[in-house]
């Protein structure tokens, strides 16, 4: 994102600042016009009326724009527009006659025209803001998706991970373990999901869960007997759409911490539940280390940073992520609202 796009996004997010700036600018312009006249005292009530009328009309138009963006129903917009236009036109006509003490038939034409103009400007500004923000969000998603494709392959299925996995499978084969063919199938599934399915914007939660379970199996082999693992994936709405490989970084982070653990055992708890419109993930892992100076970055490194960015873009205002770190455990809690 370049500097101009960054500035636009920042201004779009600062709603209060924009509204205050608009109101103050309009007030200053009207006051300058009034104060430049020798009839300033007589014109001041009219200027204040015009100021309130313009603000009310513009924000009524913004409300109409909001109705269109949310409802997408032409009938509702037409009814609301006609109602507000009639109310504001009548209020404008009689309000102007009251403050100016002057009556003209032209008021019945000019004031409705100004009402329609200001309401249209308000609605246009609301819709334009939403369109620009959506376009920037989609551009960011596309950029982040392209950047993360390689990152996902090199983090979740890095050459180091594949090397250790193949070595572990080889060791099991030498021991005559009957699960070797099953592990080879799981490894093939992991590769296929990472290379092909991860390119999709959304996938069924059931596919993501299968990937997570296969990933956990291979990491469990790597750690060995000192791992105390508790996994609960029930109940899960398998048809619920979710961004692919969005949950993996939180589980990957738990296993990464285990690499530097010096205790006799490593404890990892993973719980995944879902409803018709939400996904809840709980991951907790022990992280007792020999030296506090040698500890990994508990913020989760690039994996969790990328996950945060994807959550903010894919589920704005629809997710809650909390990370807790005490002397013994690192805990991640994530809730995603999918609807």
UniProtKB/TrEMBL annotation:
Query: Sorted alphabetically, which keywords does the UniProt record give?
Result: Kinase, Membrane, Transferase, Transmembrane, Transmembrane helix
| Record-annotated Signal transduction histidine kinase internal region domain positions | 149-227
Q: Which GO terms describe its molecular function?
A: kinase activity
- The membrane-spanning stretches of this chain are 20-41, 48-69, 75-99, 106-125
Respond yes or no to whether keyword Isomerase is given for this record: no
Taxonomy, superkingdom: Bacteria
The identity of this protein, by name, is: Histidine kinase
Species assigned in the record: Spirosoma liriopis
